[in-house]
Amino acid sequence: MREQFRFVARNDLVIVRRLGCRGNSILVRDSRHSDYLFVYKGVDFTIDLESGHVKFGLRRDVCYHEIRRIRRLPPHKHIIPPAGTLVIEPQDERLLICRTLVPHGKQDAADSTLAQAATWCSQMAAAVVHTRLVAKTYHMDIKPGNFLVDQDRNIPLIDWEQSGACLYTLAPEDDGSWDVAPDPSTESLTYVKYNNSPRRNLPWERPKWNVFPLWSEQYPHALDLAEIFSLGRTMWMLLNRIPEAQLDEEDDVTVQ
């Protein structure tokens, strides 16, 4: 593994500014190479350990799942490639991998022209089509903040944790309150409201009940529709310059 990656100590990262996304996304530079900017969506294992071993284990597993998921994806020019740099943090005489560094371009999506935004919409669609039809998986959290403007002014899809979704681009039927009831005679899908006791399979993320793994196996067309909805909302936000930062902090956003 050490022959494949470059390692950077977490303490060597200098925070430039926090990005307008819920979570731990920050713009950083390596103190030893100050000319380059990176996006770091890190895990602070020290804080997580203080919160208990259960949370630590969950955060660690999500972190490592994303690294493995990206490395297993069939490559596509509009999906972030496997990282070449891993951020490490010492913990109990061990070195823990706590995230990757993603190169950051100098342009912000909010500064785009209409023509550039249209090009980016096409790239977004290509990334989602590749995810569903070629990679045979799902992203789950398609939103403006997960398309990162790179140094070539392209906008690859990042953040492959597959462990949560923002409410303002999530399809309404995917909020955990609906189940799929397929009709074999017509091959159509019917969504049935869930009215039993509360359920939760995402310990701290949103939505509380994650339908994506089940639907990916049993109802792939329902998942296609969900990802298309999120893609459409993301394009609409980009083209209309809808600010994401404020929405990302809301817990009661309802998409109609």
Outline the structure in words:
With 256 residues, the chain is α+β, with helices and mostly antiparallel strands. 30% of the residues lie in helices and 21% in strands. The protein has 6 helices and 8 strands, in the order E-E-E-E-H-H-E-E-H-E-E-H-H-H. The protein has a 6-stranded mixed sheet. Strands 7-8 form a two-stranded antiparallel sheet. A hairpin with a 4-residue loop joins strand 7 (178-183) and strand 8 (188-193). Helix 3 (114-134) runs antiparallel to helix 5 and helix 4 (212-218) packs across helix 5. It is globular. The model has no long low-confidence stretch (mean pLDDT 84).
Keywords:
single chain, 256 residues, alpha+beta, six-stranded mixed beta sheet, globular
What distance separates the N and C termini?
A: 46 Å
Unreliably modeled segments: none
The proportion of residues in beta strands is: 15-25%
Q: Helix/strand/pairing class, anyone?
A: alpha+beta
How many helices? The count is: 6
Number of beta strands:
8
The residue fraction in helices comes out at: 25-40%
CA-based gyration radius: 19 Å
Order of helices and strands: EEEEHHEEHEEHHH
Question: Globular, elongated, flat, extended or rod-shaped: what is the shape?
Answer: globular
Strand order of the largest sheet: 1-5-6-4-3-2
Q: What's the pLDDT, averaged over the residues?
A: 84
